[in-house]
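Quick one:
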Amino acid sequence: MDGFFDYAIADEVHELKGGDTAQGNAPGTLAASARHIAVLTGTLLGGYADELFNILFRLEPSRMLEEGFEYGETGVRAFTETYGLLEKITVNALLAYPDRPFGFGDLIGREFNPETQRREPSLIAATRDLDQNFVYAKERG
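Output:
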């Protein structure tokens, strides 16, 4: 039904931004069937660019792809880097090490690579295995 309607109007689109649901997919189907679409909301953003990403991707997926934003986490990340503010949070990764200082292996995280526009594996820490047969001060207590 491409171009079947001249105009389409969707209200409260902020309610449809998350998840892959029938209600969330409806504006995309409507947008694909109309020559022009007006979307309305009183509360578009919670203050973050990523909240707008799914709405825009549903309304004009081909344009988002043309702009270099793929659907999913990688696209959200690239969109946020372009139009928003990024915050990097690293979580206290070696807290279990004092209780079990062996068998950890290297800790690998995922970090965004601007060249590939993807999250790629990166080394967080290379742990050293201690002798598991030795009684350390913590256990002697």
